[in-house]
Write a structure and sequence with these properties.
228 residues, 5 helices, 5-stranded mixed β-barrel, alpha+beta, de novo design (two linked rop proteins), OB fold (Dihydrolipoamide Acetyltransferase, E2P), 3-stranded antiparallel β-sheet
């Protein structure tokens, strides 16, 4: 049995377990996605009941013998970002993305730090759609689905701002004759590559990322897409 102490973490999801307990899915800095049983956490007297909530910066301690660990301590280390309305929906979307794409026990410390920063930025005046697109790009790259954005997939020709492209999810962009349904501009692709996103290109990039993410998820789309 292994013991983990004071691991930086965020709660992604929780569900009931037996009468008084919860199974808590968390995203940790050094251990990736981890599932633990929080015994008695549903009880009105539980010290964990109001702490095990999404978006709160936590330090978790747990014992691990099987894939499902046992929570032993929780400490909140800072106030959660003030996510409201659209920013709250965006935060829930990020949590579902991580739940669907991250495997348990696969450390993703860089993704963890990006997630932490995005939560803080979502609570500010930064345009949320730009934050989501860049986070999606880095998440796909971290799990082995990096997107080709600056050259064509068939001939390695550089993507040109003035041209239009069909994006094949598992390969990359292919140049087409002109604008059309389902196509994306070279300017938008290069903007995502450089992470300098223009407001006019956000609808194109939103559509692109939905197609790419949907391709990798398969037959079960994200539930949070229905919120947008």
């Amino acid at each position: 049995m292994s013991r983990v102490l004071l691991e930086p973490a965020y709660v992604l999801h929780q569900r009931s377990f037996r009468e008084t307990s919860l199974i808590v899915e968390s995203f940790t800095r050094d251990h990736g996605r981890v599932a633990v049983v929080a015994r008695g956490a549903k009880s009105a007297r539980s010290r964990w009941r109001n702490v095990l909530q999404p978006f709160r910066p936590l330090l978790l301690s747990w014992n691990q013998k099987t894939e499902l660990g046992t929570l032993t301590a929780v400490d909140q280390v800072a106030s959660p970002p003030a996510l409201q309305a659209q920013s709250l929906y965006c935060g829930l979307y990020l949590n579902e993305l991580l739940m669907r794409f991250l495997h348990r026990g696969d450390p993703q410390s860089e993704v963890f730090e990006r997630y932490r920063h995005v939560l803080i930025e979502l609570a500010s005046t930064v345009a949320p759609q730009s934050l989501l697109r860049v986070f999606e790009k880095h998440l796909l790259e971290a799990i082995g689905y990096a997107m080709l954005l600056d050259r064509e997939c068939k001939n390695a020709e550089p993507v040109q701002e003035q041209h239009w492209y069909e994006y094949i999810p598992d390969r990359g962009p292919v140049r087409r004759a002109g604008p059309g349904k389902g196509l994306i501009s070279g300017n938008a692709l290069l903007g995502l590559q450089s992470e300098q996103l223009e407001k006019d290109h956000l609808p194109e990039l939103r559509s692109l990322m939905r197609r790419v993410i949907g391709y990798h998820l398969g037959d079960k789309p994200l539930a949070s897409w229905s919120l947008f």
